[in-house]
Amino acid sequence: MLKALSESEPSRQSSSGNANLAPKFFQSAPNAPDVMESLLGFAKGMYLDNPIPSLFKERLVVYLSRFCEGRYCITRHCGYLIGLGCPAGDSSAPVATIEQVMRLLKTPTPWERNDMQALLQHLDTISTPIDWPEPETPMEDCLFAAATVVFVQPRRSNLERAALRNALGGERFERLMGLLTFVRATHYWTMVHPELDIDDDVRRLLDQQAELAKLLLEDAEAGRSEMGMKLFDELKALRDLNERRELERAKQALEERDRQRELLLRTAEAELAHVSRVTTMGELTASIAHEVLQPISAIKSTIRSGLVWLANEPANLEEVRACLDRIARDTERATEVIERVRALAKGAPPSKTWLDLSSTIHDALTLIDEEASQHQIAIRMALSSELPLLYGDRVQLQQVVLNLALNAIDAMKSTADRPRQLIVTSVPCESGEVLVSVQDSGTGLTQETFEHLFEPFHTTKCHGLGIGLRISRTIIEAHGGRLWAERNPGSGATFHFILPIGEPEDPAV
Asked: pTM here?
């Protein structure tokens, strides 16, 4: 590349009868001509005046430039090799043919060969330093392969350098290292001057030689000499990727732990809800027994009446049929009571469906009729018949109503100076929700009780668990609603819960 500067007037020299070229390389630092002069001095010592045979030098420069990312050096020196200038600035050196250059460019790299170990052993066993070999000979191939490893991987080429030093002798070895250093330096110059483009004479050649152009411009080995930095970048990218993957795995682990924690929490809440329901059933034993015994007593009485009608002569079949109808109705009543109790007592998983909230509340309150009667408490229901269907768990919502109603009854047991009334209402709201209120006329809520009302295990009952209101709030919130309490102006307290109406986002919940 710098052969045009080997004479005192480098940019005007002629060689081999051709007008000498003024490569763009020599015009790349117009503001610092002394730098170019210094570079010329370096090039003369390491390349132009290096006593290595010119054709060997130029062929090696072309082959080593394969592994440089920039394409200016390899195209320029390829031009010198085939006669667009002179090989290594030597007008007496023979030029190569296009075919020879393409064979050189197609030579397998050291990383594609299976004979590198044997090649190095051959160089190591040479007893007398050899002279520089002729082009396209096995010895040139050996030297090129070893020199390529030194050029591309200088810090990992101990074996190759030792083999080359043994085969060439100390002086030739150092001259070879100087040539490799020249190739490195000129390539670096082109990298820091990216505006350098392929010289015009070489561009015209490549336009005519498509296969040669492809070998020079589309070489997969281009950039291997910068592989160390590329590997460093790739390793950094891999580390960054690994860190991202580690963070993602940690995030997934945390999410899984949160999911497991949420699952355990839901399981615990379900178990507590079950315990609360069973406890409630214990409190309602008298009421449940009364509800079941009423239809059973009616069935017994109807059976006796039916037997009397059958004993008549002739038997009054119409009256017997009427008795059987009453028995069937009373049996259905008893079955319904037992089914409601069983649904509340069993630990079945939540099951949401479309339901009539007013009917759901009414059925729950029938279970506390006897409990309320025993304490002279009047139950008044004002349940709207115009409520749209609500999507929820019937058993869970009945558990909330029962818990609030029993708390109200418990608050009114000691009341003597005013009527004991439990008022339960349900009304639609303009916001598209349903409001349910449970009001009592009992002792009311102290400030301390009011502040800790929904905390778990906080209770004012002698035998209470302190989980009923907490579970009730959890159930209502799971239905997308909210539960709160108010102190009445006169006496007692009112508990409200509000539930949304409409198509659920996830019916499976």
From this structure: 0.47
